[in-house]
Design brief:
This protein has 5 helices and 8 strands. By secondary structure, the protein is of the alpha+beta class. It has a 4-stranded antiparallel beta sheet with strand order 7-6-5-8, with no helix packed on it. It has a two-stranded antiparallel ribbon with strand order 1-4. The protein has a two-stranded antiparallel sheet with strand order 2-3. Helix 2 runs antiparallel to helix 3. The relative contact order is 0.11. The model has no long low-confidence stretch (mean pLDDT 91).
Length: 229
Amino acid sequence: MSEADPVVGEVNAAINGVLAALHITHASELQHAALADLDALHERLEVETQSAIANQDEARANLMLGFKCVISSLGSEIQMWLLLKSEEPEAAWDCLIEAQNAALSAGRAHPGFAHLDEHFQRLEAIEQLLFPPQVFMSSGLIVGRQTCSICQADYEACDHVPGRPYWGRFCQIQSHDIQLDHAAVVEHPADKRCRLISRPVEGGHRNYMTGRIEAGEDRTMNAKLLCAN
């Protein structure tokens, strides 16, 4: 991507300005300020996306999508640090996974973001170093029908490819009339937010994140399942 483009230069400068907030030691009020800056930057990028679409420039629209993925990843990581400071590890985990997913999505949006592999590896290292091992789940679903998020047509009759960018948006399969069929423990889930949150022990359930025993008579495993999985 060309730094000669004033918007690209502006966005890169704004991103560089919030990198210091990607540490748990950074002052919380400064991290909140960084989040506000990222929100403003996202609005700026949305304006540029609509301008690119109006000018029939799909490559630029997808470039703006890539930048939005980058700031989403940074924002989710900053939120993770804030939540960890507040002793909210469950929500912090979700933010970490969202940061990882957004970093990967940036590379899919535009080839100019291929260098974010290093950033993704850093987020994976944070997962391994800061959080205890998790027990992941996969949910089996019965889906009545599927449509394309780009053209709204029946997915099987559509030429769009899930995960690819089109005019500043990713194609996604939209599922309708969903029923949960089963859930299973897996090693490599489609979504790492789908996991067991506690296991039964004497006196209640022990939370996998905190190690605390939470009172309760239900002796079954407690799981967090996402239909996206």
